[in-house]
Amino acid sequence: MERITFEQLPQAVSTLIERVEQLAGKVDEVLCKAAGKDTGRRNLLSLDEVAALLGKSASTIYAMTSEKRIPYRKRGNKLYFFEDEVMQWIEQGGTSGTGGEEDFNRRLEALRSGKKRKPGSLQNNR
């Protein structure tokens, strides 16, 4: 490589900038292709990460899972959340897709009608 004189400096810097931009473009292409590949693995979130994502406390997330209001998986005593499912749930407005209040009321009425009560004679003899 020959030495660059002071007079050649502006052109040398210009050439250097062009080459760096070309390299940066190629690096971006490679990174985008690598990021675009589906590895088949889903990103798991912890309870604390889901709580932070939703701006809720961990106990609120526990309550939401027990009421099946948020998508989750459970293995033993451990709760698992898939990021894509949680994001889709958020995009759907935070509904579990189970029918909402109408479904809840229908199930509640079915439970009430199926409940057996003590005969009136037993309730009065306390």
From TrEMBL:
InterPro entries: DNA-bd_dom_put_sf, HTH_17, SinI_DNA-bd. Residues 44-93 form the Helix-turn-helix domain. Residues 92-126 are annotated as: Disordered. One of its GO terms (molecular function) is DNA binding. Residues 103-112 have a biased composition (Basic and acidic residues). Transmembrane segments: none annotated. NCBIfam families: excise (TIGR01764). This is DNA binding domain, excisionase family. It comes from Bacteroides xylanisolvens XB1A.
